[in-house]
Amino acid sequence: MRNAVRRVLQFFRREKMIHSLFLINCSGDIFLEKHWKSVVSQSVCDYFFEAQEKAADVENVPPVISTPHHYLISIYRDKLFFVSVIQTEVPPLFVIEFLHRVADTFQDYFGECSEAAIKDNVVIVYELLEEMLDNGFPLATESNILKELIKPPTILRSVVNSITGSSNVGDTLPTGQLSNIPWRRAGVKYTNNEAYFDVVEEIDAIIDKSGSTVFAEIQGVIDACIKLSGMPDLSLSFMNPRLLDDVSFHPCIRFKRWESERVLSFIPPDGNFRLISYRVSSQNLVAIPVYVKHSISFKENSSCGRFDITIGPKQNMGKTIEGITVTVHMPKVVLNMNLTPTQGSYTFDPVTKVLTWDVGKITPQKLPSLKGLVNLQSGAPKPEENPSLNIQFKIQQLAISGLKVNRLDMYGEKYKPFKGVKYVTKAGKFQVRT
Amino acid sequence: MSAAPAYSEDKGGSAGPGEPEYGHDPASGGIFSSDYKRHDDLKEMLDTNKDSLKLEAMKRIVAMIARGKNASDLFPAVVKNVACKNIEVKKLVYVYLVRYAEEQQDLALLSISTFQRGLKDPNQLIRASALRVLSSIRVPIIVPIMMLAIKEAASDMSPYVRKTAAHAIPKLYSLDSDQKDQLIEVIEKLLADKTTLVAGSVVMAFEEVCPERIDLIHKNYRKLCNLLIDVEEWGQVVIISMLTRYARTQFLSPTQNESLLEENAEKAFYGSEEDEAKGAGSEETAAAALPARKPYVMDPDHRLLLRNTKPLLQSRSAAVVMAVAQLYFHLAPKAEVGVIAKALVRLLRSHSEVQYVVLQNVATMSIKRRGMFEPYLKSFYIRSTDPTQIKILKLEVLTNLANETNIPTVLREFQTYIRSMDKDFVAATIQAIGRCATNIGRVRDTCLNGLVQLLSNRDELVVAESVVVIKKLLQMQPAQHGEIIKHLAKLTDNIQVPMARASILWLIGEYCEHVPRIAPDVLRKMAKSFTAEEDIVKLQVINLAAKLYLTNSKQTKLLTQYVLSLAKYDQNYDIRDRARFTRQLIVPSEQGGALSRHAKKLFLAPKPAPVLESSFKDRDHFQLGSLSHLLNAKATGYQELPDWPEEAPDPSVRNVEVPEWTKCSNREKRKEKEKPFYSDSEGESGPTESADSDPESESESDSKSSSESGSGESSSESDNEDQDEDEEKGRGSESEQSEEDDKRKTKKKVPEGKGEASSSDEGSDSSSSSSESEMTSESEEEQLEPASWRRKTPPSSKSAPATKEISLLDLEDFTPPSVQPVSPPAIVSTSLAADLEGLTLTDSTLVPSLLSPVSGIGRQELLHRVAGEGLAVDYTFSRQPFSGDPHMVSVHIHFSNSSDTPIKGLHVGTPKLPAGISIQEFPEIESLAPGESATAVMGINFCDSTQAANFQLCTQTRQFYVSIQPPVGELMAPVFMSENEFKKEQGLQGGH
């Protein structure tokens, strides 16, 4: 009875979906707020700050926080917190996905998703948020449509605007939302028609102490940059589509066609977008293009340790490995490091204890190495664990899985487009345990 | 500091690239400081004729709003510009208006006429935006205007405007929930819409306004399934979660007959129509006779849903993938759930927030369906760069997945983790090892040895955690581990973490016979430091003392007494209590010898080893992917996932029929239209929409060309025609194919003659087969059975009221007259049985079975058959939450007609209710034939009082005044909680 009474008393109309959004920077300032329904006081963010304090690390702030009257769902992107206020049950991923979409849009519009960029363009930000969400429910989130509604700022345009008094709100009304191809705007015209595809593959791997692979997997994406007039209908086929084990698609891709013929057939959005992302089946052995020799040791009862790593190429298919960077999170007791690289340069941040070694290219004749001494806090016990090494690298003109685009055909338009495919392989989450 | 300089400076400043934020300028900062003239410059700018100045002012105002500054005093100046020609100024004015209209309602009304004009604009986008802003202004006085606008927009030519109308529905509902009935009408109309643009938004409105009206979905079910793939991502999520609930009420559990299913799955959806058709008619009796024997056949509609959602696992949106995953988890047969694992694992590469949510769900799933994720074990390996919260979740999943075969690899991984720098994570790993050790007997010793090694770790937290876990493991086989206990005893000198100390003491006490030498010594040490210990340790010291006293009283008698005396004067009353209690038990006294004789049995009884379980064990009673699941607590507005019904409700409700009379007149026309209809569902631009823009008209012609195979009306590029065809077909063909299936099915069905389905020729064939094809104008007539899903189809038996022990007390209000001839009494018994049967049927469709099953016990009389002129009405409190409104008590009303004329139009008439009490009426029952009975559910919010709810029960001819007075006990809401939670609650209450 009691419980029931309380529940009735508490009852008032709760609205679904996203109620408000607060943008908070790293030092805890709320620098933007937007409410899609009635206003929720900023003080609700106190719960968030509390959780943030408890988490110590920004990465460990729980994405969902329950407060007496609201739920806060937040994401952390580019040193900013996007905190949304929810009142009732809603799938958390729905909100998280949306917030990331908002951040992506800012990135797309302003080139970066930073506090400065948002503050500089606060009116555009507000207009975007207004269009993206209606009464808390997502309305227009496709970049093509948004760009028709609200033109992204460019230096040229703002100069022109200030002279002519015109604005950056589109005065022609968007057509994309009205058609059944909601991702593409109408009336696209280019003098040079081009379609470029970047096949980017990332190797996720965990290599254990002895150099054997614990886990390795290839994750790939195909990013497209399409500048084609009219309503082109493209189909992209692969030499070896069976390689793709698990694929996720941009909404423009016709699923059925892929299922039956393994051909990507689509009417593309205008501009840059991610066509597919895929995983190469883990059954295939993944070629690991680099190896690392390492010897890191801390002496008991002494305030120094030794650090020595060497990187070498392995299974690189005859291509040069470049852009190598090694990042190491050293244990807390490390005070400083005195190292000599045979190649590239290194930095050690004594506050965050992060060692970064920018290696550059590998030349097989002389393998790059980094050697030297580690200064430890005296008196402190030696660290038990050796730090793991995070490695970044890049190999141009190679898709490590062997995926090859066969051909790109265009239908529906008469002109001849420029076509191009570029391959690149990178390290994803590539970690060597020591 | 006058306004003028700042004003000019602003003008100069406007040349700067994209710099709307003048609030930061020193000049404008100065203006803020002078209170009276505040915003004067802005007002001035807004009053000019120059658009550029107005724009500048609006930009500054919006910047203020964005920073959370109050700009409400500018309202009059801003609202004047609502009719401004400049589109950007207008937009910003809208932003302002929506933000402040609630605070300045009177002034906001000034803007309404502008929007009303906008609603009539020939341009659909202006119509839509006018409706959007109008419905966003939260001013109660304009509710009628909003209602009108929504109604009009719902039948707009443009799907975009209709979409906006769907968006406006929840806004109006939150402003004034009295409009519910009218809004439901609009929702019903929009649900029939067959464009993908509208579908997501209207389902959203449905979920917010009337999620309990599942009956509205029946006719649109197949259409929604088929459109799903073309709906935008956000709409997909909402539709999928709604369909999950729908399927749980309408279909049978696919897991109930696993083995039979394997053979039948395929047949089920191509060839089982005969079963279906027969089933519809004879189901009732057959199912009643042998409910368990009937082989499970998946409803084709159930299959349709599973098939049409599967491709969405490949969506780029994590939310959609999760929605499909939960749908499969809750609805698919076991053998098919596996497909979601791959997609979920893919999401683990996404942003860390996404990982966090997905891992929580995977953790829950991996308990129930371990095999599903086993192939992906390595994807859950932990990197040192993962955030701690992700690490711990991955660890949880790894632990759940560990089994006899993969345990060596898992343990090897764990070994790496133990050396991590992240101590919270190490502690979690130790617990995980403990769990693996308990679950997999083979590795118990290995784990134990590993943990013992950790006891010499330098980090105290690690040691403490190990001690706690070792304690639990030792309990399983204490005899062999005297050495370990000795080792632990030594640790008491060093280890300070209370939980670990307490664990060691308990171990020594429990197994003191294994360490007879050391135990008294430990007690001695602890007695010395007793006062300085934490409470939890003190309790264990008392415990140890008592156990030693019982086994080894010679050595420890004095020590024990000393400890007990110390405890007697402790600050904490738990400890004082315990001391008193222990003393009485163990020390023999003059009177109470009886207990102390059994003290040894009490203290040293063999104790069962603890079970180490996942904290995710009970979570799957929440719908996966929901906020409630994530928080492991019921979130506001969470709707319980209904349990499967025991018998399937009538599947024919989803058939889309066309009323007889329209069929005749329209047959010719329809035949012509038939094909375009099919392509419509793919091309989604209906014939009603005049070509608004180029792409649309183009697409329409495309879709025609696809269906009419070369009618040649489209594009000049004839060589590309095939391709054009694909353009539309590709994405739509999924739905098309299923339609074809449907078509095939119904073709077969026709000769069979399907029960009550009135259709008899190909005309209806096409119309009933594809739900989307004929949802246009006749929607009103089609809703002949508004709520049949919850009303049990009347059983074959005749009826009569069950005369009951309840007096006529409840009928006090009832005034009326004449007495009808009493029907023959012989019927009574059968009808009661039939009623009960019906009762259980309805219940199971509605609510989880774990709630107390309803029997006829609580049945009370509402209207006696004599008083009711042959209509007898009983009611029971079903003790289940009313699906529509959590504050309502659901009441089952059973009608039986014992007269010899049909009773028509049974409904609730204007209730006269005391304050606070409200009623959710049951849907009208059109007709109750003589001898028949029916059940309906209504919700009453008694407002937690025991006041009676008085209302009228009307038939076409008569009205009866009835009242329901709730016993106190019926007002409580059932709450589901797991055993653990219950224990926790119990603990809280038992406390201090």
Secondary structure layout plus pairing:
The complex is a heterodimer of chains A (434) and B (992).
Chain A lengths: L1 H9 L7 E8 L4 E6 L9 H11 L8 E3 L4 E7 L2 E7 L5 H19 L4 H6 L1 H11 E2 L2 E2 L4 H7 L5 H10 L29 E14 L5 E15 L5 E6 L5 E6 L5 H7 L1 E4 L4 E10 L9 E9 L5 E10 L8 E8 L4 E8 L3 E5 L4 E7 L8 E8 L12 E8 L8 E7 L6 E15 L2
Parallel strand pairs in A: 8-23
Antiparallel strand pairs in A: 1-2, 1-5, 3-4, 4-5, 6-7, 8-9, 9-13, 10-12, 10-22, 11-13, 14-15, 15-20, 16-19, 16-21, 17-20, 18-19, 21-23
Chain B lengths: L2 H11 L12 H8 L6 H8 L3 H16 L8 H5 L7 H14 L4 H15 L4 H13 L6 H12 L4 H17 L4 H12 L4 H14 L5 H4 L2 H7 L5 H18 L7 H13 L2 H17 L10 H10 L8 H14 L2 H4 L1 H9 L4 H17 L1 H4 L14 H14 L5 H12 L4 H17 L4 H11 L5 H15 L7 H10 L6 H13 L7 H12 L5 H17 L1 H16 L4 H14 L6 H5 L1 H5 L23 H5 L28 H24 L10 H14 L13 H32 L9 H8 L9 H4 L45 H19 L13 E4 L7 E11 L7 E9 L5 E7 L8 E3 L4 E4 L4 E9 L7 E6 L4 E6 L14 H11 L3
Antiparallel strand pairs in B: 1-2, 2-3, 3-7, 4-6, 4-8, 5-7, 8-9
How would you sum up this structure, described in words?
The complex is a heterodimer of chains A (434) and B (992). By secondary structure, chain A is an alpha+beta fold. Helices cover 18% and strands 40% of the residues of chain A. In chain A, the strands form five sheets. In chain A, strands 11-13-9-8-23-21-16-19-18 form a nine-stranded mixed sheet, with no helix packed on it. A five-stranded antiparallel sheet of chain A has the order 2-1-5-4-3. A four-stranded antiparallel sheet of chain A has the order 14-15-20-17, with no helix packed on it. In chain A, strand 1 (18-25) and strand 2 form a beta hairpin. In chain B, helix 39 crosses helix 40 (721-752). Chain B is globular, with a radius of gyration of 36 Å. The longest helix of chain B is centred in the C-terminal third of the chain and has 32 residues, at 721-752. Chain B is built from 44 helices and nine strands. Chain B has a five-stranded antiparallel sheet with strand order 1-2-3-7-5. The chains are: A alpha+beta (434), B mainly alpha (992). Chain A: GO terms for molecular function: small GTPase binding.
